[in-house]
C-alpha cells in the first residue's frame, strides 16, 4: 500500500510540473492557450496518465510568481501541486495560463469525478501564499479540460472564476466550510 501511495505522489508531482506540452485538437495550439472550453466540448487529447486538465488564466495587477493548488474529492484532500517558473524569479505574464494536469492515479477506476474541488493559493513577490476567496468544486469528467480566470490583487484578494458562463461549478466561502 505504501508503494502505491508513494507512486501516486511521485506521478502527481512530476506530471503537474510539465509545461502542458500536448496539443489540444479543438484549437490546434498548445494547451497553454486561453481558449474557453466547457465540459460539453470535444475533449482534448491528453497524455495517458492524465485524468483532466485545469487551466488558470492569470489576469491580475499583482505580479504572481507561483500558484499552489490543493485538490479535494468530496471535500477530502487527495493531492496538490505548484506551478511557476523554476526559480520563481520571474512572475507570470498578464494573460499567461497555468496548466494543472490532474493525474488518473488520484481517482483509480473512476470516469466521473463528482465533487472535485480546488483550493488555490497565490504567491506574489514576497513569497507568502494568499488563499483565493472561495473553495471551487465541480463534477469533473476524465478527458476534459476546465478553464478558469484568476483575477484580483493582494490588497483586495483573488478570485477564481470559470472562463465560460456555461460551466457549472460551485463556490463556497471559506467561512462556510469551517
SSE sequence, one letter per element: HEEEEEEEEEEH
Residue stretches low in confidence (pLDDT < 50, at least 5 long) are: 2-41
Largest sheet: 6 strands, antiparallel
Helix content: 10-25%
Name the shape in a single word: globular
State the helix count: 2
Summed over residues and divided by their number, the pLDDT gives a mean of: 77
Q: Count the strands?
A: 10
What is the alpha-carbon Rg in Å?
15 Å
Distance between the termini: 31 Å
Structural class: mainly beta
Q: How large a portion of the residues is in β-strands, by DSSP E?
A: 35-45%
Keywords:
mainly beta; 43% strand; disordered N terminus; four-stranded mixed beta sheet; six-stranded antiparallel beta sheet; globular; 178 residues
Structure characterization notes:
This protein is mainly β. Helix content is 11%, strand content 43%. It contains 2 helices and 10 strands; from the N terminus they run αββββββββββα. Strands 2, 3, 5, 6, 7 and 10 form a 6-stranded antiparallel sheet that branches. Strands 4-1-8-9 form a 4-stranded mixed sheet. The chain is globular, with a radius of gyration of 15 Å.
Amino acid at each position: 500500500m505504501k508503494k502505491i501511495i508513494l507512486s501516486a505522489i511521485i506521478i502527481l508531482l512530476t506530471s503537474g510540473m510539465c509545461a502542458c506540452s500536448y496539443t489540444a485538437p479543438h484549437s490546434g495550439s498548445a494547451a497553454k492557450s486561453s481558449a474557453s472550453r466547457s465540459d460539453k466540448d470535444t475533449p482534448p487529447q491528453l497524455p495517458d496518465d492524465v485524468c483532466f486538465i485545469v487551466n488558470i488564466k492569470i489576469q491580475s495587477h499583482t505580479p504572481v510568481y507561483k500558484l499552489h493548488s490543493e485538490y479535494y474529492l468530496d471535500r477530502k484532500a487527495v493531492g496538490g501541486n505548484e506551478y511557476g517558473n523554476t526559480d520563481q524569479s520571474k512572475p507570470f505574464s498578464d494573460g499567461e495560463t497555468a496548466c494543472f494536469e490532474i493525474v488518473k492515479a488520484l481517482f483509480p477506476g473512476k470516469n466521473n469525478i463528482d465533487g472535485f474541488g480546488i483550493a488555490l493559493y497565490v504567491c506574489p513577490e514576497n513569497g507568502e501564499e494568499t488563499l483565493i476567496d472561495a473553495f471551487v468544486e465541480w463534477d469533473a469528467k476524465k478527458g476534459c479540460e476546465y478553464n478558469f480566470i484568476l483575477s484580483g490583487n493582494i490588497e483586495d484578494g483573488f478570485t477564481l472564476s470559470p472562463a465560460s458562463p456555461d460551466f457549472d461549478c460551485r463556490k463556497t466561502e471559506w467561512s462556510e466550510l469551517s
